[in-house]
Amino acid sequence: MDILNALVVFANFVLVPATAYGAQLALGALGVTLIYGILRFSNFAHGDTMAFGAMITILFTWLFQSWGLSLGPLPTALLALPFGILGCALLLLATDKVVYQFYRRQKAAPVILVIVSMGVMFVMNGIVRFIIGVDDQQFADGERFIISARDFKTMTGLDEGLAIRTSQGITVITAIIVVAALFWFLNRTRTGKSMRAFSDNEDLALLSGINPDRVVMITWIIVAALATIAGTLYGLDKSFKPFTYFQLLLPIFAAAIVGGLGSPIGAIAGGFVIAYSEVMVTYAFKRVFGYLIPSWEPDGLIQLLSTDYKFAVSFAILIIVLLFKPTGLFKGKSV
Amino acid sequence: MKKILMASAVSAIAATSAFADGDVKIGVLFGFTGPLESITPGMGTSAELAIKEVSDSGMFMDGMTVTPVRGDSTCIDAGAATAAAERLITSDGVKAIVGAACSGVTGAVLSNVAVPNGIVMISPSATSPGLTSAEDNGLFFRTAPSDARQGQVMAEILMEQDVNEIAISYVNNDYGKGLADALQESFTAAGGTVTINTAHEDQKADYSAEVGALASAGGERLVVVGYVDGGGSGIVRAALDSGAFDLFHFPDGMVANALEGNFGSELDGSTGQLPGTDSPGSDKFVELVGDSFDPSGPFGPESYDAAALILLAMQKAGSVESADFKDHIMDIANAPGEPIYPGELGKALELIKAGTDIDYVGASAVEFIEPGESAGNYRQIVIEGGKITTEKFR
């Protein structure tokens, strides 16, 4: 019984939240890594792209809610997601046309594109704030919990509760579906293969008749889909506030770099490595050990590091990985 | 040319000195630019409202007039604030300063300008506990309570509700850290246990790690010293969802309408407190302000009171010099005496002149404790049925 309690405490405060957070980071990092692999620059505007996609989704969610449309226990936002993706794709394609295309034609160095993306970031930042405002927005509806802590306790008779939110369940399931679809697309379809060819060797790809404009366009559309899904899932799980999306950029980049920039598998692994290390290294194991070793009454919290250091943890991992494997865990391109 | 210059200079000096006989200048030094720029205009207007009321009454020092002079303390740039205060005193010749707005620059202006020049300063909004022990030669007062005081009040409220174990999560800045430490000190002194006192960064993406640590430490209440439109709400959300805590206690940064909107009845039974008073003074202040600006903005009443206290103390001392009137500020602010509310400054001046003792209550129910800061009045709240309801005032 005590071992079960210990497991439940650990699952409730470490496994479940870290898995959901990891899935959100992984989806974000996939977008960053695709742009890096195919368009060859670090896109700093990614956090705000997520915010923009999520914003369009929220606006449609509100519209549907006002019509009385709903998905029952599931959040209405899932219904609005395709429209969010569409809106986000239009914005990214327009940005590419107006901004990035010019620099691509000039064969500008990647560092210039990075700075350009920073400019784009500020513009998108402004657009999102202008349309929806700087405040917190709530748009989640449907059932809040798959199982709440209280229900779990009465169901199992354990002392500890385990809560799994609907948004956490949806996040993980959606992430699995999206990743599977993306891998199928990249490995099995003609367009996916041409994208990978373009990423591996641009000149060779051009020689074999691949249309670069088409590759670029499809990349942006996929990135828009990934960003909107990641942004919406994150907003459902926590809340939508433009500024936090901007803050999300750091862990997302850490995830992409740890996994290996340009490698889709790496992005997913990196997302989970960062999420688990942030939550686990700073977790206080007092209650877990309290159940495992009943005779032991610890004075402290049995916490390796205070939560103040949680960002230090992810960046320490980033530095260690870069020192020993400069291309990241999954052999991406070196940074 | 030379003659004209001389003549104009002489006449200018003559004019100023003639003017100075019948006019007193009061500095209004707030962060009109910078992070507080959205609330300082209301504060400035409030202070000027009191100054105008005194000046228009014609009762001040046998018919002297009072003029406010604004200065910009910027809130974050101590150098700019010091320069602005220096200008107010040396070039404008103000006799006292209402200000500054933020704790950091207030300390800088106090030690670099006010104390060397011997000028009285009353700040309406600097709440840092550090200012309580600042070297001030009796020149510094504040109509806002120190955060240390809120820590004590919070500990008292929790103790009255038989809460003996609390966990604290504070926003990692001067406000959060200062208040959390004050609470921990008072709460442990009263015999309670603080299981954990840890920081969270504002506006971050994920708070699972913080809530995990807080849940392990446990406690009957989670005290969230943060901002309702920032990380504070994130912590509460994560704590509620994981079942880590059901009951919370909130200080002023968290008690706002957004709390009802974000959580509704999920917080039923949670408690909190924020500065506030049920004294008739606050209603009278609202009436007095009318439509000229929004009187519900923060620190407006305190600003009005700061300016009023300076002028009433001058009347009592019969002198506009800081060295003479600084010792009268405490008498004016505290009982016993005839209570004075906003809009009654003319009457107060008359009473003082007649030798009657007055107790300035003002818009914020000012009562000074040593060393010259407001004891503070707090509104204790409890959340019931998803609504913030007032339990009592203390």
Spatial shape of chain A: globular
What is the strand arrangement across the widest sheet of chain B?
A: 7-6-8-9-10-15-16
Determine the CATH topology of chain A: ABC transporter involved in vitamin B12 uptake, BtuC
Shape of chain B: elongated
Distance between the termini of chain A: 49 Å
| Assigned CATH superfamily of the largest domain in chain B | Response regulator
Spatial order of the strands forming the largest sheet of chain A: 1-2
Most extensive contact: A-B, 43 and 32 residues
Q: What is the domain total for the residues of chain A?
A: 1
Helix content of chain A: over 70%
Largest sheet of chain A: 2 strands, antiparallel
Count of β-strands of chain B: 16
Helical stretch tally of chain A: 13
- Tell me the Rg of chain B in angstroms: 23 Å
Q: Whole-Å distance between the termini of chain B?
A: 68 Å
Rg of chain A (C-alpha, Å): 21 Å
Percent of residues of chain B in helical segments? 40-55%
- Annotation, overall tally of beta strands of chain A: 2
Structure in words:
The complex is a heterodimer of chains A (335) and B (394). Chain A has a two-stranded antiparallel sheet with strand order 1-2. Chain A has helices spanning 2-39, 46-67, 77-105, 110-132, 149-156, 166-188, 190-200, 202-207, 212-237, 242-259, 264-280, 286-292, 310-324; strands at residues 145-147, 164-165. Chain A is 73% helix and 1% strand. Chain B contains 14 helices and 16 strands. Chain B folds into two domains: 2-144 and 279-374, Rossmann fold; 148-267, Response regulator (Rossmann fold, 3-Layer(aba) Sandwich), CATH 3.40.50. Chain B is α/β, with parallel strands linked by helices and 394 residues long. Chain B is elongated, with a radius of gyration of 23 Å. Chain B has helices at 2-22, 40-57, 78-90, 103-117, 147-160, 174-189, 208-217, 231-241, 257-263, 280-289, 300-317, 322-325, 329-333, 345-353; strands at residues 23-30, 65-72, 96-99, 120-123, 140-142, 165-171, 193-200, 221-225, 248-250, 271-275, 338-340, 358-360, 368-369, 373-374, 378-384, 387-393. The interface between A and B is large, with 43 and 32 residues.
